[in-house]
Amino acid sequence: METLFVVLIGMVAAILANRNIAVFNDGLRPIVSEHIEGRLNRRELGLTAFAMSFGLVIGFGIPFTISASIILIHSILLGTDIIGLLTPKNKWGTPVAALIGGLYGWGLIAGLEGFVKLFDYLPVNFLEPLGEVGTPVVVTFMAFPALAVAMQFGIKKGVLTFVVAALVRQLAVFVNEQGLITIGDNVVSINQEGMALIVGMIFLFVYAIKEKASEGSSVDLASLFSDKVRSIKKNVVFFMVIGGLIAGATNLMLMAGDPISLNLLSEGQTADAGIAAAARAIGFIPLVASTAIATGVYSPVGFTLIFVVGFFSPNVWLALIIGAAIIFAEVMLLSYIARFLDKYPGVRNSGENIRNAMTKLLEVALLIGGANASNMIAPGFGFFFIAGFYLLNEVAGRPIVRMAVGPVGAIAVGIIANILVAFGLMTIPQ
């Protein structure tokens, strides 16, 4: 039954990614939205997904999974993001994605250590450094409300929003470092990026709500936000299925949603793991909700509350049912949020600015991440290659979209580094 749960999660998650319904990587949701709206082709989307997620699977998800003998959710869902987006979205591509996703889930259960060691045979193992491509995304993502405010309401308000969000983030870091928030004997860490994002979104929506509608104008509920949320709602059954499966697998102590709860679970501290998961979920809600509303692409784990359900449910079947119900309620809540936003034209009109702000930030974050990853793979040469690659791409009229330059460039540097080492033209980086 344990293997069946993981195989089914792999299959359903790969289908959701393949059909552009949901992806786990927060930074990928705006990029998938760009593809849905025709501004990014499938090949570039797949390459970007691979570059953003594969290094994290190898360098982050799998090591935690091996060390605890419990699957860190990143291991499976970052992998299914890649599988789903690399396979074509057509009548044969979706079944193939489901099959590969299921096999991938089975492979995680069957054995991971040999897979990791396979890449050690490369002269330059660039898979771990490749994880740096996505590192700046979540951190920089918290700045998108400030950029959206500046675009719509002026640079002064944008700067104010940015400064306050940055201060709140640092206060959250201080609170975490000092252990000021506790539940019982457990120190609770708050998500600093999540707190900064909350503040930024509050500023954005306060400014937008103050923007009055002109006389005689009416609010159209078929706005950008409502359209995006409706596209999520029509797929709610898929979310209920995967939400129930993940809650059930968590209850079986097969997986966890973050390294902290994973380590607590491996030590048999299920209640403490549940508390840690709940604290993380609270900080994750604004990130998932805002990206879902703005992009129409959801997360297969929703607000991550399904992990809390799994930890505290008395048995696997109740966890499965409650997990499905929780993620159903989350999707329905998105609809109410969108309708609330539709009452205010300033908020509704901010949709395009939010999308543009996300795109601009991702272009910068992925370029920085790609440069850092490249320089870790081949010190000096990495920065040189990414800078030249970016500028030549600009001069050539951007045959590769800006968002894909960093990730694709980092992969290219990894391949080139191995070729140079093989021919004796480069020493292996220490």
Automatic annotation (TrEMBL):
Name of this protein: YhfT family protein
Q: Check the record and name the Pfam families matching this protein.
A: YhfT
Task: List UniProt keywords, sorted A-Z.
Answer: Membrane, Transmembrane, Transmembrane helix
Q: Which InterPro entries match?
A: Uncharacterised_YhfT
* Tree of life domain: Bacteria
For this protein, the parts annotated as crossing the membrane are: 49-80, 92-113, 133-151, 158-175, 187-209, 236-257, 277-309, 316-338, 364-392, 404-428
Q: Does the keyword Cytoplasm apply?
A: no
